[in-house]
């Protein structure tokens, strides 16, 4: 990623934290630690375990901040360790329309 494309995590966190991400598409399968999710018959995405987990918990019922709190409890880490990977994953999933905000 070039410096012109750098993502401002703090600003994205402030923009997304009170929004409710809702996963789109459907799970196809898992192979060798990679998870495959399809948006439709022609668009399939390979997700890392972390991104798949974030996609999976994006239920449209909870805000991103609530999901961050859930992640902290699930993996026993502090919020500041969760925000950056969560924001990057949600931003990427949103760009390819595997999550939308409701």
UniProtKB/TrEMBL annotation:
Q: What is this protein called?
A: PqqD family peptide modification chaperone
Q: Which organism is it from?
A: Staphylothermus marinus
Q: Which InterPro entries match?
A: PqqD_sf (IPR041881)
Gene3D superfamilies per UniProt: Coenzyme PQQ synthesis protein D (PqqD) (1.10.10.1150)
Q: Which domain of life is it from?
A: Archaea
